[in-house]
Amino acid sequence: MDIGVLALQGDFREHISALKNCGVNARPVKTKDEIVEIDALVIPGGESTTISKLAKAFDLFDLIKDRIAKGMPTYGSCAGMILVSKTILDPASGQESFGGIDIVVRRNAFGKQVDSFEADLYFEGIAGDPLRAIFIRAPWVESYSNEVKVLATVNFQGESHPVAVSQGNVLATSFHPEITGDSRVHEYFLREFCKK
Ligand code: GLN
Description:
The chain contains six helices and twelve strands. The chain is α/β, with parallel strands linked by helices and 196 residues long. The protein binds glutamine.
């Protein structure tokens, strides 16, 4: 299994390390040829507007959109969640997503950079201790269709919000498992989506 991590902007190096810790072949991808070759894609955290602008500038946008729509296993974390969503609330002007999962996400839902926080979460399908989840100017899932499975939620100001979801070939988390040293979310993606 050849796993590509979209390397246009953001913390793709951390995802590559986390995937390598799981014992798989992971590499940065940023050209059409590389994106055609891979079996699965991880879209990292960073800035979703920048990633989508660069994907358009390098003529990768439609290819990625099409590969996700045709079933390529895909995991989006934070900005990556925004990029696989169907609809973005509070988008930058003209911002588009690749789609893949039938969710409406709200960008920067928990507040500004200074409002970043950590929480311990229960994640359906991941056994053991709760997951330490790091939220950095993170989105949340505002609404979702019946096809979408909610895997984790977080309580924020008295309300519960989905922060890990999946549908078909696509997994998305609002938080950043690649920077905790705990590779259980990457293992979960490989096991459940990539049939490692
Ligand atoms: N707020 C960022 C965006 O809109 C996402 C932040 C992140 O990936 N840590 O893309």
